[in-house]
Amino acid sequence: MKKLFLLVLSTVFVTSAMFAQQFDLSAEIRPRYENKNGFKSLRAKDQKSGNFISQRTRLNFDYKHGSRMAFKVALQNVFVWGDAATMSVNSQVTSLQQAWAEVFLIDKLSLKLGRQEIVYDDHRIFGNVGWAQQARSHDAFLIKYKPSDKHRLDVGFAYSADNQGGVDALYSNAAGYKTFQYAWYHGDFDKIGLSFLALNTGIQYLKDAGLSTETKKTTFMQTFGPRLTMKFDKFSADVSGYVQTGKALESDVFAYNAALNARYQVIDMLTIGLGAEMLSGKSMDDTDTKVKSFAPLFGTNHKFNGWMDYFYVGNHGNSVGLTDVYATFVLKKGKFLAKLIPHAFLSGANIFRGTEKMGSYLGAEVDFMLKYKINPSVAVSGGYSQMIASESMEVLKGGDRNAFNSWAWVMFTFKPKLISYKFPEKK
Length: 427
Prior knowledge:
By secondary structure, the protein is mainly β. The chain has 2 helices and 21 strands. A hairpin with a 2-residue loop joins strand 18 and strand 19.
């Protein structure tokens, strides 16, 4: 770790001195306490809550050589307090959260290669999952074209393998895909913003596994759709819709997602909003082999459908879908921020307990958080969420709806900028 740090630092300084550009070294330490008492799924009545403190530690190297090139290396360590002995020789693993380089071919066109966060629009399909201590990054190659400040087009590619083997082996899909290709466009038109995403995702698997006829196969699913944003004075809104088609392993796919949000700034410090999102699902009594449940793929799913992560955060895939109706109340004054978000959840398709058809109402969740910025580098935040579940949620998730299901957390975020230096231009 120390040798790697010195090597990167010395390389950057020598290069920067030659070409007189910008170098930044920043860090992040983010410990978070959590009490999980029915988080992600309803708990049994006699089940005790879980308590732990996790921590993210990062060191970020950023360098930019004018309009020629840029690169970023982010070292990351994620652990739970106490998961190693106090005198452990090798307590945790430090990894590369990001390691990419970007070259600018001309002012409007660049190539970006390596491990990188890919984030578009509201994070629904591509997001960095910043809430998770480990976050998300992709090994990808991007072509970025920006003809003006108001228009941008990105085209991305990824191809994944488990190792450097000399034979064509089956990929484990550790990245969530064998390959993907996408195009994303965004344009600003006065008070209107328009984005469009088209994504082709390939999953590799063994067809007829265990039989003499088994073959390695990759099938592709397409996700595409627009997102529209509007801002007029104190009122803003956004609407989006995505469709999924193609194949998921041997099954045909047809699924959809639609969302609408509206916000109004009542006074300078208070904004209120209403929103709804619908994700298609498949009825429990549906025997069709077609995949009808929408998958948000690589989005920051913790941001959506309640912070207790009952839906689409490593769960609820190929299920009955969801309709989420919610309100938002945001109070912001100086260094202080407060949010209150009540949700009402309904299933997107029929739920059955045996032969009994259940109601579509799943329950309500209330999310609340406070944040205070102590100074530009340090912030403290905390939150509380509670799930009030219905009988249908109990059928869907298991556990006991009458048990008290809640989640609470407190987090400190330290993000100091250690070095920021612009080297003088050489004549």
